[in-house]
Design goal:
CATH class: Alpha Beta
Number of strands: 7
CATH topology: Rossmann fold
Number of domains: 1
Radius of gyration: 17 Å
Strand content: 5-15%
Structural class: alpha/beta
Order of helices and strands: HHEHHEHEEEHHEHEH
Distance between the termini: 22 Å
Helix content: 40-55%
CATH architecture: 3-Layer(aba) Sandwich
Length: about 270
């Protein structure tokens, strides 16, 4: 797929993130907007999936460990054809299919229920180890936040990934530098992220998480790496695409109002 096409999908997903959070009156725009470009590459180019058969046995798996960024995943699943766009407008409503965090039991295309930060890599390890034991070719991709890797469970899981040589597992670290209470440096310094993962036995690649060529190339290198898992440290902009949200910690978990929604949609190219 051409980069221009991926950009069109990403733009549509970002518009839907803004609209669904405005409709819900709550949610997490900052991180959702920052991971959107990586999701387009995964779901439109890389992952072996079938929207018409979401539980296909040999599909690649994706785990959104930073589950509060679910709006980006939901928007991408709609873009890929897993369920109708109409479902987005019921986000976070009682009884709706789409809740504030991913739910594998009720949402087509969601491979793991997440939300409690730090747990996703462990779940992904289990999936990747299953594929190894079954001698299956499918791969596992997992997305963590940079604030999330302050959780000790991440590093226990990282040891296990290396111990079992899970070269069919690729971890994206969404490194936008901000979390709910402030910058990573202020709350609990996570740097140097790359050196930490290398010390734990991982192959490490640093990229611009908004550059499609870099994302694509990193995933290719991850597939070619044998005997150890790969961590892709993706430098991103929190709130990417909306000027008043970009690099603003206050937009970690706050929904836009109608006026802000209109401005954001205008910046993203209009409502259509």
């Amino acid at each position: 797929m051409k980069n221009e096409e991926l950009a069109q999908h990403a733009c549509h997903v970002r518009k839907n993130i803004v609209k669904m959070l405005t409709e819900a009156g709550s949610g997490h725009p900052g991180g959702s907007l920052s991971i959107t470009d990586m999701l387009q590459v995964l779901y439109f180019e890389v992952m072996h999936i079938d929207p018409k058969n979401p539980k296909m046995a040999d599909r690649d798996r994706f785990v959104l460990s930073e589950g509060h960024c679910a709006p980006a995943l939901y928007g991408t699943l709609v873009e890929r054809g897993y369920f109708p766009e109409e479902e987005l407008w019921h986000l976070r409503k009682c009884g709706a299919m789409l809740q504030g965090h991913p739910d594998m039991k009720h949402t087509p295309g969601v491979d793991m229920s997440t939300g409690s930060l730090g747990q996703g890599l462990s779940a992904a390890n289990g999936m990747a180890l299953t594929a190894k034991l079954d001698q299956a070719d499918w791969r596992v991709y997992v997305m963590c936040g940079d604030g999330e890797i302050q959780e000790g469970m991440i590093w226990e899981a990282a040891m296990s990934s290396a111990q079992y040589k899970l070269d069919n597992l690729t971890l994206f670290v969404n490194h936008n530098g901000l979390q709910i209470d402030g910058s990573n440096d202020e709350v609990m310094n996570v740097n140097p992220i790359d050196a930490k993962f290398r010390a734990f036995g991982w192959n490490v690649i640093a990229i611009d998480g908004h550059d499609y060529d870099s994302i694509r190339a990193a995933i290719t290198l991850a597939k070619e790496t044998k005997g150890r898992p790969t961590a892709i440290i993706a430098e991103t902009i929190k709130g990417k695409g909306v000027s008043f949200m970009e690099n603003q910690v206050g937009w970690h978990g706050k929904a836009p109002n109608q006026e802000q929604c209109a401005q954001a949609l205008n910046e993203l190219g209009g409502e259509a």
